[in-house]
Amino acid sequence: MNAKGKNSIKESKTKMTASTLMRLAGLSAMLAGLCMVIMGLFHPVNIPEAVTTTTWVNVHIAATAMSFFGLFGMAGLYARQAEKSGWLGLTGFVLMSLWFGIVMPFSFTEAFILPRLATVLPEFVAGFLGMFTGVPSKVELGVLPTLWNLSGPMFILGPLLFGIATFRAGVLPRWAGGLLAFGALLIPVGAMVPAEYQPEVALLTIALALTWLGYALFSERRERSSEVVPGKVSSQLSQTEAK
Predict the structure, then answer these.
(1) How far apart are CA 243 and CA 240, in angstroms?
(2) Which domain holds residue 62?
(3) What is the pTM of this model?
(4) CA neighbor of 100 nearest in space, from 168, 28, 195, 52
(5) C or N: which end of the chain has fewer Cβ atoms within 10 Å?
(6) Residue pLDDT, tens place only, 82-99
């Protein structure tokens, strides 16, 4: 086999690997969206009494998983349309990724640490939950309140910009991008409804859009004839020439 045949096989394998990574990223985005649905439907009210319940723990395990899968999923969604989404898509991608990155340690703390501290350090638990409800904390929480306050605008601007960029790019389903942007506009509305309904208003529309985009990326059909066949043909021709 000559050098040309080897290069063709390497190029084919590279393209197959990129396609596989895109599918995995799409699957990750779908899982992130489904975890967000769980949060929207079952998130308890942020009160100390709820911290020790099974529902609280399970919901925040789902939130931790959402952040993990969301980071990889967003990378794939952006990479798929990077050329056409422009600076708007890049900005939305960065903001949404930062939001996932901030939410992950918060959710991990809520799932695995707060329940253990509920009876030992109730003031810390109440202060931690106060970041979400606006109640001043009696204990010093350091930089945590600042980080959480920054995450709010990220969760509005990130989906809004990325959704608009997706709609304009037309690479992934336009209406999924439009739904993502619309969900971002609903987030401020969530602050006006009773606390028990806020997760549904703020999360479910974005969750649906993220799941839709992930499914589109996961199920997208590549023209495998242009990815695999040329490499095999070149390899066969090279072997024939060598003989």
Answers:
(1) 5
(2) 3-242
(3) 0.83
(4) 28
(5) C
(6) 999 999 999 999 999 999
